[in-house]
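hey
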């Protein structure tokens, strides 16, 4: 009896490499759905974004589509950025653990200061001007018609009221760090049919007015690490 047990023990021991492979395979299989979700959301969101609003570089215009793929309008790209600064997080980038994909673009003040003017990127009507304690903090939402809305998040001050008509380039508030923000920046989000699309589709191919990008990002990150010891949520 003992001999058989001993023999079995040796048998299992001799299979330890195979067991390791089995365990590894098991872990990979378990992780597959997670990997799939990340891959799908990363590529999927860009596909959805491009299907609803498509930038045509030749005509510098934006073609707008119904969710079923039918084109319903063509509008001109805007040249007005909501704020000057540097883009520190692009649309669709991973913002884990807070967002699987980033639903807008973050334009930061490279000197880590609040108070820069934030302006409307296109004419429209203010449909929200208020504050929540989380997420976007103080933010403004503008309806531009054509099923397009723009959101300006993390403001320090709001200078418009709900129902107000705003012109392109009109000041709507001041850059800040309210809500989930690790430093002064504007989260610009553009929704078409309520679905976030890449704001760069509407802003052409240029970067926002500001300093040299790489240098600015380094300065920004350095300022951040000095300023924010306790706050680490960013949206
Ligand atoms: Zn953001």
């Amino acid at each position: 009896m003992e001999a058989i047990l001993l023999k079995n023990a040796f048998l299992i021991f001799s299979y330890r490499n195979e067991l390791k492979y089995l365990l590894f395979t098991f872990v990979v299989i378990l992780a597959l759905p997670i990997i799939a979700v990340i891959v799908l959301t990363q590529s999927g969101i860009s596909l959805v974004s491009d299907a609803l609003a498509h930038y045509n570089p030749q005509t510098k215009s934006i073609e707008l589509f119904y969710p079923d793929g039918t084109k319903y309008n063509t509008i001109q790209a805007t040249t007005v950025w909501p704020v000057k600064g540097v883009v520190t997080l692009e649309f669709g980038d991973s913002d884990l653990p807070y967002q699987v994909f980033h639903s807008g673009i973050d334009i930061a003040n490279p000197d880590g200061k609040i108070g820069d003017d934030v302006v409307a990127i296109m004419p429209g009507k203010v449909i929200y001007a208020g504050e929540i304690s989380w997420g976007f903090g103080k933010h403004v939402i503008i309806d531009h018609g054509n099923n397009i809305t723009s959101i300006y998040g993390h403001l320090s001050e709001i200078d418009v009221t709900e129902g107000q008509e705003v012109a392109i380039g009109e000041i709507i508030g001041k850059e800040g760090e309210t809500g989930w923000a690790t430093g002064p920046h504007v989260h610009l989000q553009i929704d078409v049919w309520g679905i976030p699309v890449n704001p760069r589709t509407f802003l052409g191919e240029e970067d926002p007015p500001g300093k040299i990008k790489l240098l600015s990002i380094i300065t920004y990150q350095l300022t951040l690490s000095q300023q924010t010891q306790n706050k680490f949520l960013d949206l």
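Residues 80-227 form a domain with the Glucose Permease (Domain IIA) fold (CATH 2.70.70.10). The helical segments are 2-14, 16-52, 213-227.
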